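anyone seen this seq b4? input:
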Amino acid sequence: MSTILILEDEPFIALDLEETLVESGHQDHVTLSTCKDASAWLDAHTPAAAIIDPRLSDGICTTVVRRLSDLGVPFVVYSGEPDSLIENEPVFGKGEMLGKPASPDQVSAALSRALQTE
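predicted toks r here
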């Protein structure tokens, strides 16, 4: 199974996402908390999919999302304010949108939908 990238800077939310992935059969995942770390990781890896909180401690990760989109990597945008995000950064609209908070079932379903569009 291929790696799922989790991009989340809130530790408890990241842990919940990791547990949700494991419970839904995605054992191979990597969790990063900054745009800078994600960009560096993407220099050497291509994930099967990603779950992204667009607003991280070092800014909005537009560059990371553009790279994922250019690579054809499906992604879920996991945000408390998805509509305003798409208005300002249209590239986020290429992903599966999921508002925070979401249940594990909703996260799994959003990831499944994203993976089906690849």
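The mean pLDDT is 91. Strands lie at 4-7, 29-32, 49-52, 55-56, 59-60, 75-79, 96-99. kinda curious what u guys think
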